[in-house]
């Protein structure tokens, strides 16, 4: 089995690859391959996934919302495949990735009234900044960037699960 996504990965692509391997049954050991964004999906075999890429109509993108924006592929994977507990554990991460994907800047979307300096600080320290730092460290190595981001997302899932459990115990 293979998971395909686009070259020069963005936050939704890396999160979708991790989410696919984590939550979609039978994909944990899938080989990840990268293709141009306009790839037609011709090499896909039965059971392969194309995440955050159209792949000639065979790919998986997020659902279009009522206001016309397209939700992230990662959010779609969570809704369809993650447990309710894991959806809660990753709710903030999913909201950030969804806003980044749909609006180009989660920081400007969530903090439009913040000063320019505050937006700059938030943008420089958010998940997208971590992705860009890894891409600067490992140029043209999408596979390694995805591996490193997977470690971060796995840690965020564990921390989120602990937060959900602690909240449940407090009630």
Please characterize this protein's 3D structure.
This protein has 171 residues and is mainly alpha-helical. It has helices at 11-23, 73-81, 84-89, 91-103, 106-110, 116-125, 127-137, 142-170, and strands at residues 2-6, 31-35, 49-50. Strands 2-1-3 form a 3-stranded parallel beta sheet, covered by helices on one side. Strand 1, helix 1 (11-23) and strand 2 form a beta-alpha-beta unit. Helix 2 packs antiparallel against helix 4 (91-103). It starts with a strand and ends with a helix. The mean pLDDT is 95.
Which characteristics define this entry?
single chain, 171 residues, mainly alpha, three-stranded parallel beta sheet, 8 helices
What is the gist of this entry?
This protein has 171 residues and is mainly alpha-helical. It has helices spanning 11-23, 73-81, 84-89, 91-103, 106-110, 116-125, 127-137, 142-170; strands at 2-6, 31-35, 49-50.
- Biggest beta-sheet profile: 3 strands, parallel
- Rounded mean pLDDT is 95
The rounded distance between the terminal residues' Cα atoms is 43 Å
SSE pattern: EHEEHHHHHHH
Q: Order of strands side by side in the largest beta sheet?
A: 2-1-3
Helical content, roughly?
55-70%
Rg (CA only): 16 Å
Structural class: mainly alpha
Put simply, the count of helices is 8
Low-pLDDT segments: none
**Global shape:** globular
> How many DSSP-defined strands?
3
In terms of DSSP E residues, the strand content is 5-15%
């Amino acid at each position: 089995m293979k998971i395909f996504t686009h070259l020069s990965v963005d936050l939704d692509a890396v999160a979708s690859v991790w989410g696919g391997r984590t939550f979609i049954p039978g994909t944990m050991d899938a080989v990840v391959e990268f293709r141009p964004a306009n790839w037609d999906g011709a090499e896909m075999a039965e059971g392969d996934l194309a995440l955050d890429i159209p792949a000639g109509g065979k790919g998986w993108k997020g659902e279009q919302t009522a206001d016309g924006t397209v939700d992230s592929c990662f959010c779609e994977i969570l809704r369809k495949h993650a447990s309710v507990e894991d959806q809660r554990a990753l709710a903030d991460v999913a909201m950030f990735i969804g806003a980044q994907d749909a609006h180009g800047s989660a920081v400007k979307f969530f903090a439009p009234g913040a000063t320019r300096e505050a937006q700059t600080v938030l943008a420089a320290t958010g998940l997208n900044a971590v992705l860009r730092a890894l891409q600067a460290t490992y140029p043209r190595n999408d596979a390694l960037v995805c591996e490193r981001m997977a470690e971060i997302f796995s840690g965020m899932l564990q921390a989120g699960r602990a937060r959900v459990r602690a909240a449940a115990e407090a009630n």
